[in-house]
Amino acid sequence: MQPWLDLARIHAPLLIIVTPLAAAALAVLGPGGRFAWIVASLGALISAVLSVDLAWRMLERDAPQPDVLEGVALDVNGVAVFCATVLACAGVPVLFATGAMLRRDVRPRAAPLAMALLSCAIAAWIAALFAADLSSILVAVETAWLCGVAFLAIAAEQDRGALSAALRMLITGGVAAALMLLGVGFVERGLGASDLEALDDVSIAAPRLAGVGAGLMLVALTMKAGLAPLQVWVGPAFGRASAGAALVLAVLGVIGALAVMTRVGVAAVGAPVIGDGVAAALAAIAVFTVAIGSIQAVGASNVRRMAAYASVAQAGCALIGVALGSPAGLAATLVQILAQMAAMLALFGGATAIEGKAPMSALDGLSKRAPLASATMTFGALSMMGAPLMTGFLARWRLIEAGVGGGWWWTAAAMIGASLAAVVYGGRMIERLYFRRATQAIEQGGDLWRLVRVPALIFAVAVLAWGVEPSLLLRAADAAAQLDLGEGS
Amino acid sequence: MSAHLLLAAALLAPLLHASLVYVLPKPPGLRDVIHIGFSVALAGVAFAIVGAVSHGAYARIVIARPLPHVDLAFSIEPLGALMAAAMAGLGVVHAVHTSGMARAQQDQAPHRLMAMIALASGMAMAAAFSANLFTFFVASQALALVTFPLAAHGGDEEAHRRARAYLAPLLVASVGLLLPAMVWTYARAGTLEFHPGGVLAGRVDPIAANVLLLLFVFGIASAAVPPLHRWLTNSSEAGYSALVSIQATAVLPIGVMGLIKISAYVLGPVLREAQIAERILLVLAAVSMCVAALIALSKQDLRERLAYSVLAQSMAAVIGALLALPAGLFAAALQLVALMCAASTLMMAAGVTYAATGRRDAWEYAGLGRLMPWTFAAFALGAASLVGMPPFSGAWAKLWLITASSDAGLPWAAALAGLAAVLTFAHLGPLTANAIAAPAPPDAFKRADGASILLVAPVVLSGLATLLLLVIADPLSRFLGPLWGVTP
After folding, report:
1. Cβ contacts of A386 on chain B, cutoff 8 Å
2. Judging by DSSP bridges, how do beta strands B60-67 and B70-75 pair with one another?
3. d(Cα B446, Cα B100) in Å, to the nearest integer?
4. Is A163 exposed, middle or buried, given 0-12, 13-18 or 19+ CB atoms closer than 10 A?
5. Do B65 and A471 touch (CB under 8 A)?
């Protein structure tokens, strides 16, 4: 057994990507929806176990991952190891919960395809994180994006509004793909190399071209992650999507794009000549995203839209750490990505208790009908506010610390602004959940299948409560940052 | 019982109290016994902690380490122990009063009210025993959140609107100002521990000291330093039992105590370097003290009048905390305890009056003292203490404050404290005299038997507590000595 385990460990990055892909193939070829659900969930679970093991060895035990010839160019970097673990672990409860929800959202014949698309999306986002060369990143990102769009379209077959939202995502993604392709071409031409790693250790032959290319790639990823001002698909997609599709988009789609953007951003900010310009651009996008996302979340009249805009604002906070370009900033960003994933899982997972359209009034008195979902949403909101002892607080604290340490005092204002806005929209949500009486009849799944969302909710609460004793998390984030940016975290 | 066990009991008892009251709402007798019984037990524990501290005992409980070098930890020290004893002691009479009010007003959800009062008491204990700034931040935020249901206890949309207006400034100031101050302190000192002499001593330049002082004072909005005092006045339409918790035994006292702790344990000598901010804040607090007392004069609803009166008196404690002198800190601590006793007495007396007669406005109080002599005798004690009349507890605090102001070379602050006392007399003195001396109104009681013993006894006991500081002022100055290192 041990030789097999050692072999699996040597090839862990590849297996983390391949396992969900294999599960996707089996799901499509299998006999039906339930088989696909079980296979896809198992595939995600194996991928998650492998990624946790990889992260444990590399980030906690400081054991280097051996270079092996995989047939594809993989780069085992700190951001990839950390974020792949986040995505793979989040993928398990999300797949498990969404698979069961698909029973009512899609025709039985389409369920296996939907599960396969979800597995592919997870594999593709992780592949984009581990991919060594720019073209592979492009291919992986587009695959992941198209899987997300297709999943939304399949889950929206009963609703034309959701279908048009999927179309809008497709168009936005198409524009982003063109920009990214152009960006990849410019960067490769400017560097004279195709590896992302080449950005920080060569004297760039054509710095302007490389700078424009990196900028185009980041703009494309900005669109995919739904960051301001290019978040055109966020409102319609989250507002119209089914509860399950919104959960997938928020936890896997947005977090995946944000993680890839972090990886590309870290490489670009660290590049000589173009680094300062990229950092300034990222900082501008970050502040704009925090401001616009917060304002939109405060003004939202739909639960899922509110959560989506809150996610945008939180992503802006994460970008600030990337723009800093320091190990401390990157470590803070990684913690923020984890906190955002958990908060989104809590909010969108909790919101699955609301069927159909989800106006804010649907939250009124929900705590009496769905206490676990309400408690989970409360945890999510508190974490976004930056309430002490939550992972969100920890991330906010580390970001402010890193910003102030780097002389960027305004980052403290941005973080506090995001927290204050979260106090408004999160507080309003909590008040509706616990201190109002239900004003309208809400459809609610009454069968046992709704219990499948329980692991997702418990997982979200557990991650959010990690802020109580986060030493392991902080060590992992610091180690990941040091892997990519060296000592000094 | 060891100091560690006492500390653990003080932190856990209110949580158990709240849980039991909430899950056992019926029969009402059992519910009330639990509510009062746990309050008595907590008071016993708090006084035992005072005894342990006076014998030099020390205890520290660490719950978690959420940040490097920052623990979620609780410890016992003189100021926290004194505050806990005052809060828990008043908590006993408040518990009896709440039981009486719930019966008299036929409250729809008395178990929820009592559970929230117990939780508020627990969070106040946590804040009082906080070992560092981070723990204080957590506990004070939790205190603000658990008192939201108290402020909204009316249940209608208007009550919710008021409760939101109550909670918003507390949370916004906490996140927007106190949090940056904490991060900054951590960045400079590498720790957030409360330490006699101040953790920031010698670590900040004058500009940083000035900014930090402003961030701390306005960040702790529960201390109600204007313009962040609106939560206090917005809460004044809550039920009487909730009001006692918010204004007299938990939220406001914890805010002021937080300022005293920050002044003594975080800033220390840095206060002298922050001279510009200190002077601005002293002027602001002193002027606010007089203006609040003046506004109170214009309020007819006794809850509003008392809210402004309490605000004025809390500013006196804030002035003491900002003077950067041992005598000032002692005056602030004394004033805070005196304020808690007097404000509890007055609010509970107003509650009893409303429950028995349905009267809320000051002009309606004429002659009620003849019908409710015990209640209004206690009301007179509370009012005299708030005004600062010798020999009541408020007088000693004012005396120390005036002495400390003069020592600090700020005679105008002493003069304004005197003026505020006169204005406080103007809005409470005639009211009390009119209530006691005017002819009794006919058919004043809603019920023929008037107010029950559950309502009147707590008011009388609380009123008598205002006399207590007269006896214990000297031992108290020795007890609080470690706060500043010497006896003032």
Report:
1. 175, 179
2. antiparallel
3. 15
4. middle
5. yes
Instruction: Give the pLDDT mean for B292-302.
Output: 93
Between chains, do B66 and A401 touch, taking CB under 8 Å as contact? no
Show the DSSP H helices in B299-325 as ranges: 302-322
CB pairs under 8 A between A and B: 66
Which residues, 6+ apart, have CB-to-CB distance to B169 below 8 Å? B221, B228, B230, B231
Search chain B and give the residue with CA nearest A392.
B66
Contact B65, B106 (CB under 8 A): no
CB contact under 8 A, A416 and B67: no
CA A337/CA A322 separation, integer angstroms: 11
Q: Can you name the residues that pair with A316 across neighbouring β-strands?
A: none
Task: Indicate yes or no: CB of A416 within 8 angstroms of CB of B176.
Answer: yes
Give the whole-angstrom CA distance, residue B232 versus residue A87. Answer: 46
Distance CA B244, CA A201 (A): 66
- The answer to whether B323 and B404 have CB atoms below 8 angstroms apart is yes
In this prediction the ipTM stands at 0.83
pLDDT, tens digit, 9 for 90 and up, residues A347-358: 998 888 887 778
Query: What dihedral angle (degrees, nearest 10) is formed by the CA atoms of A140, A146, A150, A151?
Result: 50
**Tokens linked to A372:** 């676990």
B72 and A468 within 8 Å at the Cβ level: the answer is: yes
Whether residues A416 and B179 touch (CB distance < 8 A) is answered with yes
* Cross-chain residue pair A404–B183, CB shorter than 8 Å: yes
Q: pLDDT > 90: what percent of chain B?
A: 65
What distance in Å separates the CA atoms of residue A16 and residue A38, rounded to the nearest whole number? 18
Interchain pair A435, B171: CB under 8 A: no
**pLDDT for B197:** 85
Q: Which of A215, A216, A245 shows the shortest CA–CA distance to A233?
A: A245
Average pLDDT over residues B137-163: 88
Helix axes B393-407, B453-479, angle to 10 degrees: 30
Chain A residues whose beta carbon lies within 8 Å of the beta carbon of residue B175? 385-386, 416, 419-420, 423
What residues contact A194, with CB distance under 8 A and at least 6 apart? A133, A134, A135, A188
Mean pLDDT across the stretch B151-161?
Answer: 80
Distance in angstroms (rounded) separating the CA atoms of residues A366 and B391: 55
DSSP string covering B197-240, please?
T-TTTTTS-HHHHHHHHHHHHHH-GGG--TTTTHHHHHGGGS-H
Mean pLDDT across chain B, nearest whole number?
A: 91
- Residue of A299, A327, A326, A324 lying closest to A313 (CA atoms): A299
Residue ranges of chain A whose CB lies within 8 Å of a chain B CB = 385-389, 393-394, 397, 400-401, 404-405, 412, 416, 419-420, 423, 427, 431, 435-436, 467-471, 474
pLDDT of amino acid A92: 93
What pLDDT, in 10s, does the model give residues A235-262? 888 888 888 888 999 999 999 999 999 9
The Cα B124–Cα B143 span in angstroms is: 7
Asked whether the predicted pLDDT for residue A71 surpasses 80, the reply is no
Cα–Cα distance, A129 to B154 (Å, whole number): 54
For A393, nearest residue in chain B (alpha carbons)? B66
pLDDT tens-digit map of B413-450: 989 999 999 999 999 999 999 999 988 888 777 766 66
Give yes or no for a cis peptide into B373 (omega within 30° of 0). Answer: no
Q: What is the pLDDT of residues B221-259, one digit of tens each?
A: 999 999 999 999 888 888 899 999 999 999 999 999 999
Q: How far apart are CA A307 and CA A343, in angstroms?
A: 9
DSSP A436: S
Work out the number of other CB atoms within 10 angstroms of the CB of residue B37: 14
